[in-house]
C-alpha cells in the first residue's frame, strides 16, 4: 500500500496545480459569455487552442517520456544536457518557421483576419516547450512542490493579465481617456487577444521561475545518447500526434465540415468548445494522474509485484473517474441554470452530449493506464499503431457524422475512438506484459454509473423540478459511494484517513 499511497500523494501534488490551473482557466473562460453574448465571437480562440497541442507534440517530439525511460539507465547529467541542447535548438528552428509561414497558417485556420494571433501562439509554444524538460526533471526527482509553484504562478499571471485588460483598463480609461495606457488597449471587441497575451505572460513567468533548472544545463551534446533517444522517441511523436488528432481534430475541422454559413459555423464552434470544457474534471484527473504515474510506473517496473501494483492503481483510478462522471453528468443542469441566469441561453446548446464526452474521456484515461505495457517493453511502434488506428476512426467519423449530427456526431466519434483504443490496448497488453486487472469488477463499475445516469435522466423527465433534480442526483451518488464502500471495504480500510473511519 505504501507505493499506492506515494502515488496518491504525488498525484495530489501534481494534481493540485493542474486542477487549480484548469479550474481557474475554466472560470476565466466562463467570463467569455459575460463579455461576448454570441458564441461565434470566441471561435477564433477555440481555433488557436486547437492548433497549439498539435504544435506542442511536434516541438517536444517525445523527449519528456524518453527522459523518464532512460534516466535510470544512463548518466542523468549527460542525458539532461543532451536532450536540453536538442530541445532548445529545435524549438528555435520550429518557432522561426512559424513566423515565416504565419500567413499560410492563419489562412488555413480561418484566422486570416487576425494573423497576430499566430505571433502570440508562437511565443506561448516557445516558452512552454523549453520548459518541458525542466518540469520533467522536477517530476523525476520527486519535487512536486516546486512543480506546483511554477504551474500555479503561471496560471495566476495569466488570469491577472486578463483581468487587467478586460476589467481594470476599460474602467480606468473611461475616466482617464487621455492616459498613456490607452496605447495598450484596443477595446473589448479585441478581447480574444488579451487571453493570448495572458497565456504568453504566464509562460514567460514559468521560464523565469525555472531559471535554476535552466542554469544547470551544460552545452555538452552526446551524439550516441541522442541517437538512442531518437530511436525510442520518434514513435512517441506518432502516438502523441494521433492522440491530439483524437482529442482536438473535431474542434479544428468543425467549421470546415459542418454545412452551415460561416457565422453559424463559428457560433456552433464556440458552443462546442464550451461543451468540451464541461468534461474538464475527468480530463484534469487524467492529466494529474499521468504526471505522477509515468515516473512511478518506470521506477517500479523492476519490482516483482509491479503488475499487481499496476492493477490496483487502475482500480482506484477508475473509481475516481466514476465519481467524477456522476458529478458532471448528474449536475449538468446546474450549468444550464447558470447560463440562463445571465441571459446566455445560446451557450446551453448541446449540453446533452457532455456525458458522452465524459465517458469517452474515462476510456482515454484507462487507455493511458494500459499503455504502460508498450513503454516498458520498448514496443512504442505498437502504441503508435493503436493511436493511428484511433486517429483514422476519429477522422472518418468526424467527417461523416458532424455534417449530419453536429455536436452529437463529434461526441460519437470521440467515444468510439477511445473505446476502440482502450479495448485494443488491453488485448495486446495482456499478451506482451500481463497485468491481473480485475476486469469484471471494473466493467461492473462503469456499467453501474451509466445506469445511474440513465435512471436520473428518466426521473427528471418524469418530473422536471430543480430541487428534485438536485436531490435525486445527490441520493444516486450517495448510493454509488455506499456500494463502492461495501465492495472495496477491505481495500479502503488499509488507506490512511478513510481506513480509520471505516474501522470504527
Question: Overview of this structure, please?
Answer:
With 504 residues, the protein is mainly α. It has one domain. The protein is 81% helix and 0% strand. The chain contains 23 helices and no strands. α2 runs parallel beside α6, α18 runs antiparallel to α19 and α20 packs antiparallel against α21.
Strand and helix layout:
Elements: H1 2-35, H2 43-60, H3 63-70, H4 76-100, H5 102-108, H6 116-130, H7 132-140, H8 144-175, H9 191-209, H10 211-215, H11 223-257, H12 262-277, H13 280-300, H14 306-330, H15 332-341, H16 354-370, H17 372-376, H18 380-405, H19 407-432, H20 439-462, H21 466-487, H22 489-493, H23 498-502
Helix pairs in contact: 1-8, 1-13, 2-6, 2-11, 3-7, 3-11, 4-6, 6-9, 8-9, 11-12, 11-18, 13-14, 13-16, 14-16, 14-20, 14-21, 16-19, 18-19, 20-21
Q: Gyration radius, to the nearest Å? A: 23 Å
The averaged pLDDT comes out at 83
Strand content: under 5%
**Main sheet summary:** none
Give the tally of structural domains. Answer: 1
Structural class: mainly alpha
Identify the overall geometry: globular
- Percent in helix: over 70%
How would you spell out the order of helices and strands?
HHHHHHHHHHHHHHHHHHHHHHH
Question: What is the distance, rounded to the nearest whole angstrom, between the alpha carbons of the first and last residues?
Answer: 20 Å
Which parts are unreliable, with pLDDT below 50 for 5 consecutive residues or more? none
DSSP helical segment count: 23
Q: How many individual β-strands?
A: 0
Short description:
With 504 residues, the chain is mainly alpha-helical. The chain has 23 helices and no strands. The mean pLDDT is 83.
